[in-house]
Design a protein that fits this description.
With 161 residues, this protein is an alpha/beta fold. It has 8 helices and 5 strands; from the N terminus they run E-H-H-E-H-H-E-H-H-E-H-E-H.
Length: 161
């Protein structure tokens, strides 16, 4: 059986060191253990790396990078195909131009054929309107089905079992 491929956005990765949200942090750490055990293939983008690099809390940033060193992942550069899809997401009214980076995360996950985006961005990504819109575009454009979930959903549901 093929492994499920996850796209981790910056909100998901940074939650691994988010002590002010202990339940979220615990869920992401549990998912991280599953990733370390090879249960998922992981994708991020150069944009995710850029967003993580902008974290001002140096201790938190160091913790995040130490976690990233523990796993295998592939990082993709943002390209024209991703820009096209990001703009399509905006044109279809799913997100706005103000959310362009989120659109790029979604586009990267589609182009790299991820099964799921892991995010804690509830305002723009982990909500029914965005999930349905992204699924629609992904299917219509020939990229296949995609979900947007939190780490808690993956840990508790065990979607790869």
């Amino acid at each position: 059986m093929k492994k499920i491929k996850l796209f981790l956005d910056a909100s998901a990765i940074s939650s691994i060191a988010e002590a002010e949200k202990p339940e979220r942090m615990a869920d992401m750490q549990a998912l991280w253990e599953m990733i370390k055990q090879g249960e998922y293939d992981i994708v991020i983008s150069s944009l995710v790396e850029y967003e993580l690099d902008k974290i001002k809390d140096l201790a938190k940033k160091a913790t995040i990078y130490s976690y990233l060193e523990q796993i295998d992942y592939i990082s993709h550069e943002v390209n024209e195909e991703m820009n096209y899809l990001a703009n399509l997401i905006i044109q279809r009214g799913i997100l706005t131009q103000n959310d362009f980076n989120d659109c790029l995360h979604i586009a990267c996950s589609m182009v790299t054929r991820c099964d799921c985006i892991v995010s804690y961005n509830f305002e723009d990504m982990v909500n029914i309107r965005t999930i349905k819109g992204v699924r629609s575009i992904s299917l219509l454009e020939g990229y296949g089905d995609i979900d947007i979930l939190t780490a808690a959903s993956l840990v508790k549901r065990g979607v790869n079992k």
